[in-house]
Amino acid sequence: MVIYSYSTLTMTIVRLFLLGILFLPGGRAKAQKQEPPYRMRRGGIPQVKRILIYETVEKPSPGFANLRANVSTEKLLRLAQQSNPAMRLYAALALADRKYPKLYEVFGEIIRSDQRVTLQLTHPDNGRVFTRKTYPSSELYDRFYYSGRYQKLTAQDSASYTFQLLKLDSVALTLASQGYPIDWRTEETACYTNNAYPGSYAAIRKLCLDLVETKYGSAPLAHALASYREKADVPLIARFEQWSLWAAVTQFPDPALWPLLQPYVGKESDYRFYAAVASYQNQAAAHLLDSIYRHRLYYDDGAGRRTLSELAQALSNHYHPVFDSLIVQLWWQQQLITPAEVTLFTKRDEKKAAAIFTRGLLGFSPTGNSFLVSYESGLNTERLMSNLLLPILQHDSLTFRAVTFHGLSVFGDKDLAALCGIIRQHHLTWAASALLTRLSAEERAFDLFTISETLLSIGNADVHRRTRELLLKKPVQEFIGKWPVSFDKLLKSYNLTPLSP
To answer: How many structural domains comprise the chain?
Structure first.
């Protein structure tokens, strides 16, 4: 009989307990979650996934930073041909960061050996974990694409980047036409940046033929094919439907394709459809779009204004003087206009533009009309409103007064800020009474501050006093953020007693 000491028996039980926990259902999974810290090393698909997550351009690992900075191009090219997938990817990423002139050759080899991977990522804003399926080749493409897409480049670097991107696009599309797996995001971007590159034509045409035969559509591929504007492709384009057809027609508005758009009238209310029609830039297109607007042949189930804003944007992006009448109607009746149209009308005839702008501005209502259009991301609405108002001020001061009084009763937010900015800049003291009336009725912090700032800028001592008295009746101290402090600073700058006790 074996006799165990108390301590030996205790340790044995602990070991058995830990082993039991490890091999319980889920036990091994929990143990595997504690991965070792990432470092550069050889490896298979698991290491490839870690590379795609951790090896960013800005924050590379020490090992990769050394590889990228110090290893010769010749050696990197040899590494890119290794059988180890991790080392191939390290070399390819380093060459992409170096802007290697023949990156497209390396890109092609990565595609030929590609395996789809699932990355587990954490959202930078909310911390939520999500998964994304991708290919290493797609991440390599994106790495190069973003290296120059939104950067300020010299003319020489820009030309080099554009050529390299066209070659990458051509490789991706050619290999896709041969059946190699290409991430759909990469294929889509390649189609839109291809710009009728001759080296990609055969591949794009084959991909389009394959799609038509399988009854599937692809707006990006249709866009890419139509960009070549080959008359021989019209019969193929004519086999496209809906979004694919519209994308192709927008690039290549051939007369033979015009009848194919007619069946969608009254059934589709989409920017892409409007753009396809507008791309013809003729009287027939103007008549059809005008008919769609006048006879309300668009969805008006709460999305009607969004639909009309897409119509306005299509007219702007495919502008032709033949559309002027409809553009003006959309402004007068719907308060929809784009910055490009405002600039164009002003440059063409500033006095006539002032009259056009006046009628639209007088149509604004307290319900919150806005000329914001759905395809104008990053639109500076304050600047746009200023560009609408200034020609009126320049050419008709009496009309500008009418617009000002109307605007002070209905404008809000950035629209109001633009009007008040002009009042301050030109010291229009006659607006003080209307500003005080608006101040007495206003409750929103931003608009209250804008109006108060304007009154104090143009007013005399009596206006200053009345402004402060009206502010005392407002819940300024209850506004969130720094608004109470901002109001106090504003009053102090005019030697007035702050609102805070």
So the answer is: 2
- 220 shares its domain with 93: no
Claim to verify: residue 72 and residue 99 sit in the same structural domain: yes
CA pair distance 437, 448, nearest whole angstrom: 12
Q: Coil, strand, or helix at residue 215?
A: coil
CA-to-CA distance for 49 and 340, rounded, in angstroms?
45
What span, in angstroms and rounded, lies between the C-alpha atoms of 23 and 19?
A: 6
Q: Pull the structure tokens for residue 237.
A: 């384009």
Phi, psi angle pair for 109, to nearest 5°: -70, -35
Residue-wise pLDDT tens for the chain (501 aa)? Answer: 333 333 443 343 333 333 343 333 443 333 344 567 888 888 899 999 999 999 899 999 999 999 999 999 999 999 999 899 999 999 999 999 999 999 999 999 999 999 999 988 888 788 888 898 999 999 999 999 999 887 788 888 899 999 999 999 999 999 999 999 999 999 999 999 999 999 999 999 999 999 887 767 799 999 999 999 999 999 999 999 999 999 999 999 999 999 999 999 988 888 999 999 999 999 999 999 999 998 876 555 455 667 888 899 999 999 999 999 999 999 999 889 999 999 999 999 999 999 999 999 999 987 554 554 444 545 678 999 999 999 999 999 999 999 999 999 999 999 999 999 999 999 999 999 999 999 999 999 999 999 999 999 999 999 999 999 999 999 998 999 999 999 999 999 999 999 987
Those residues whose C-beta lies under 8 Å from the C-beta of residue 275, and which sit 6 or more positions away, are 246, 250, 314, 317, 318
Positive or negative CA dihedral for 270, 275, 281, 284?
Answer: negative
Which range marks the domain in which residue 126 is found?
A: 38-179
Nearest to residue 490, comparing CAs of 466, 459, 457, 463? 457
